[in-house]
Design a protein that fits this description.
The chain is mainly alpha-helical. Helix content is 69%, strand content 0%.
């Protein structure tokens, strides 16, 4: 906004005082909106205030935390879905697992891109997630994953469905928190999509459990 100061000053001096002030205010407002989705060079983000939020901010702490937690959460769901490819026997379970993988793989890449743009650390793999279970609703422990890996056919189908319901419910909780506390429009929209799609899948899996 400051690179156009001389042009704005010429406009302001040529107009009456009231109109000039309005033009200057409008020009400055336009400069703020152009920063949407970009991190500031001085802070590594736009969280210059203690709370990390302000009008026109491209992201806040809640947005960054959402992405940093949802990435490994999604990665674990993808791992579970990949196990279903060779271990599940129920056709609907196999189909649902493939759907979960197809949806969450691209979402992982989207969130990784946000964190890179915001200058925030990007989680890699599921390393260290066992120490983060308390802060990541629905995450399976290493022991849970080992049990799932060792199951086959009907036993796998039931265990996978039960675990994925809990996993989805955790993601839904995280998505609702982002919608309530985040400020980035794209992150909030993804959170809404996650809530809607995974709630529908939870309902489907409960029906699957009823017949298994």
């Amino acid at each position: 906004m400051f690179t156009n100061r001389s042009r704005i000053q010429r406009i302001a001096s040529a107009a009456v005082a009231g109109t000039g002030a309005l033009v200057l205010f409008t020009a400055c407002g336009g400069g703020d909106s152009s920063t949407s989705g970009r991190a500031t060079p001085t802070t590594g983000g736009v969280a210059a205030t203690p709370t990390g939020t302000r009008q026109g901010a491209s992201f806040n702490d809640a947005d960054a935390t959402f992405a940093q937690m949802m990435i490994p959460h999604h990665q674990q769901a993808v791992e579970m879905a990949e196990l279903a490819e060779t271990r599940a026997s129920d056709p609907e379970v196999k189909e649902l697992a493939a759907k979960i993988k197809a949806a969450q793989d691209p979402e992982i890449k989207i969130m990784q891109g946000w964190l890179e743009e915001w200058g925030k650390p990007v989680p890699t793999g599921t390393e260290g997630m066992g120490h983060m279970d308390h802060g990541m609703p629905g995450m399976m422990s290493a022991e849970d994953m080992k049990k799932l890996e060792g199951a086959k056919e009907a036993t796998f189908d039931k265990r996978f469905t039960q675990m994925m319901i809990a996993h989805h419910e955790g993601a839904i909780e995280m998505a609702r928190t982002e919608q309530a506390k985040g400020v980035n429009p794209e992150a909030k929209e993804l959170a809404k999509t996650i809530e809607t799609s995974q709630q529908a899948e939870v309902e489907q899996m409960r029906k699957i459990l009823d017949r298994l």
